[in-house]
Automatic annotation (TrEMBL):
Residues 39-90 form the Exocyst complex component Sec10 N-terminal domain. It holds the Pfam family Sec10_HB. The keyword Repeat does not apply. Belongs to the SEC10 family. GO terms for cellular component: exocyst. Keywords: Coiled coil, Exocytosis, Transport. Residues 93-641 form the Exocyst complex component Sec10-like alpha-helical bundle domain. The gene is EXOC5. One of its GO terms (biological process) is Golgi to plasma membrane transport. Residues 43-70 form a coiled coil. This is Exocyst complex component 5.
């Protein structure tokens, strides 16, 4: 029979248990049976069973001891919990009592109850200190419930604020281990925000105090360290650091607005930011302007040094304006002509650098300026850009370019001013783009807008005056070069060939060379100008080109075959004029072509030709002047047709 604890369950009868054991043992029954009674076997079975009972007893004893030990441990833990609860309750009770006594003591006269008041105050402060120590220990253990209980008790004590300070100090321990104070702050506030509502009755006040503590200590120290080390040694890095730190601080403040910080959290956070940066922001624009002034001058000087060029002083004020008016009126060079060897003294790289610096300055200005000062500050940055880019670079290049334009009677002159025009236009487009993209948004709703637009207009007009003067002088040089070609290549015999019947050319050499030169200049103008400026310049060039040819043809006498050659030349000039793509210019050469027909038309048909569509509106003196160029004018009595 298996020996188990179930055999001894109540009610238990020992005699019955032994009888049942003997009966189940073969040869052990008292009345015999199928097998004879065997006392030895029964004794052996009893001995084995007694051994099993001993083992069972040991097993049960061990289990009992284990259960007793567990019971003692749980009883002890329970007793501790009861003691803690009792002690906690005694704290609450003591706090309530001492709080009431403290309030009563305030009303007692000092002279009669000084000793009592002192004892109450001492007990008050001791209990307050114990509560704060208990709160601190609970916070270190992470016992939120205990922290909440103690904080609730301390709420009515003067030391409650100190309890909050302790909490704020401890929750920052180990929070700033990375090298990013802004990210660490965001993570810390996110974590504390989840906990603070479980501990304090006014979590928004505690969160606001935590954030204030971080701003006034961690962030302020970080900002001061980063800025003070570069403020006087590296202004460029200082401005970059100031922009970056202010941007990251405002971005952090935006994240923190998702927490409950009280009724006016935006004003609260703005004041904290101002307390950190106010001393730096007050001097920002002065440092920005000084940096841009120095940096712009350095960029300019570095460029001219690379060209091994010493800048010439350019006059200003009334004397310069007077010289400009004289130059425009007379088209005379005022000063020596400079050979620039094709150098325009305009640098795309320099322009990009200046615009890049100004773009960064506008970005910093937008971020760091007080809204009321933003338009004024942005305008001051714009004025520096105008000075460095428009005056010191573009205007200087135009002055040098004007001085380098040769006189109109110069031979084989290289005309580089159009290259200056091309680059100046490209640069001004970039300047205009920055004006619209970056300056306008900063000033568009302020009175400074009109001032900026006026300044821009003034700069444009000053540049246009010099561009127009230079282009006019350049066109004069072009016409002078054409005149030189005609003077050297055109022979009188071209239009009075010795053998009228043996003329093999389609047009004269002078015409061919002039047209080739004009075509190159037209192409040059197209590459150098844009928009309506192309048509304006080509119209002026075309009109002067026509005037030159018109006056040139009136210097010769024409035989019949010479007149035909003149018509061929004008036809070639007209073909060249088509490249101008200016209707007026083509019309002028059409009329000139019709005038040249007067050199070859039969005398009897002169009157009919003069009444033709293209000539009928011309002055008869002009028609007569052309007819007088014919060799047969006197012999054929052609003057009678104009009497």
């Amino acid at each position: 029979m298996a020996t188990t604890a179930q055999l001894f369950e109540e009610p238990f009868d020992a005699d019955e248990y032994i009888e049942r054991l003997a009966w189940r043992t073969p040869g052990g029954g008292s009345k015999g049976g199928a097998e004879a009674f065997d006392p030895k076997r029964l004794l052996e079975e009893f001995e084995n069973h007694i051994e099993e009972l001993k083992q069972l007893d040991e097993k049960i004893q061990r289990r009992v001891e284990k259960l007793e030990h567990q019971c003692h441990r749980e009883a002890k833990e329970f007793a501790h919990k009861v003691q803690d609860l009792q002690r906690s309750n005694q704290i609450k009770e003591a706090a309530d009592i001492i709080q009431k006594l403290h309030l009563i003591a305030q009303e007692l006269p000092f002279d009669r109850f000084a000793d009592v008041k002192a004892k109450i105050a001492s007990k008050y402060h001791d209990l307050e200190r114990q509560l704060i120590q208990e709160f601190t220990a609970a916070q270190r253990r992470g016992e939120i419930g205990r922290m909440r209980e103690v904080a609730a008790v301390l709420l009515h004590f003067k030391g409650y604020a100190h309890c909050v300070d302790v909490y704020i100090k401890q929750c920052q321990e180990g929070a700033y281990l990375r090298n990013d104070v802004f990210e660490d702050t965001a993570v810390l506030c996110q974590r504390v925000n989840k906990q603070v509502g479980e501990v304090f009755s006014s979590p928004e006040t505690v969160m606001a105090k935590l954030i204030q503590n971080i701003f006034e200590n961690k962030l302020q120290a970080h900002v001061r360290e980063k800025l003070d080390e570069t403020r006087h040694s590296d202004v460029e890095q200082y401005l970059k650091n100031l922009y970056d730190l202010y941007t990251r601080t405002t971005a952090l403040a935006t994240k923190l607005t998702e927490f409950n910080l009280g009724s006016d959290k935006h004003t609260f956070l703005s004041k904290l930011i101002k307390s950190i940066f106010s001393s730096y922001l007050e001097s920002y624009i002065d440092m920005e302007r000084e940096y841009l002034r120095t940096r712009g001058a350095m960029i300019l000087q570095r460029y001219y040094d690379s060209k091994n060029h010493q800048k010439r002083p350019i006059g200003t004020g009334s004397i310069q304006e007077l010289k400009e008016r004289i130059r425009q009126a007379t088209n005379l060079p005022l000063g020596p002509i400079i050979d620039t060897h094709g150098e325009t003294f305009l640098s795309p790289e320099l322009v990009v650098n200046l615009l890049q610096e100004t773009r960064h300055a506008f970005e910093r200005c937008n971020r760091l300026s007080d809204p009321s000062d933003l338009p004024k500050n942005a305008f001051s940055i714009f004025l520096l850009l105008v000075d460095h880019l428009c005056v010191e670079h573009i205007d200087y290049a135009l002055e040098i370019g004007l001085s380098a334009i040769p006189s109109s009677d110069a031979k084989n002159a290289n005309l580089y001013f159009l290259d200056v025009v091309q680059q100046a236009n490209s640069i001004f487009h970039l300047f205009d783009k920055q004006f619209n993209d970056q300056l306008m948004p900063l000033i568009s709703s302020s009175p400074k807008l009109a001032e900026c637009l006026h300044k821009k207009k003034e700069v444009i007009e000053q540049m246009e005056v010099k561009l127009d003067t230079g282009i006019d002088k350049t066109i004069n040089c072009m016409v002078g070069q054409m005149k030189h070609i005609l003077a050297t290549e055109q022979k009188k015999t071209d239009f009075r060939p010795e053998d009228e019947n043996n003329v093999m050319i389609q047009y004269t050499t002078a015409c061919s060379k002039v047209c080739a030169y004009v075509s190159r200049q037209v192409e040059h103008v197209r590459k150098s100008m844009d928009g309506k400026n192309v048509d304006t310049v080509l119209m002026e060039l075309g009109v002067r080109f026509h005037r030159l040819i018109h006056e040139h043809l009136q210097q010769y006498s024409y035989s019949s075959m010479g007149g035909m050659l003149a018509i061929c030349d004008v036809a070639e000039y007209r073909r060249c004029a088509k490249d101008f793509r200016v209707p007026l210019v083509l019309q002028l050469f059409d009329t000139l072509h019709a005038l040249c027909n007067l050199l070859v038309v039969a005398p009897d048909n002169l009157k009919q030709v003069c009444s033709g569509e293209q000539l009928t509106n011309l002055d008869r003196n002009l028609l007569h002047a052309f007819v007088q160029l014919r060799l047969d004018y006197r012999s054929a009595r052609l003057g009678r047709h104009f009497s």
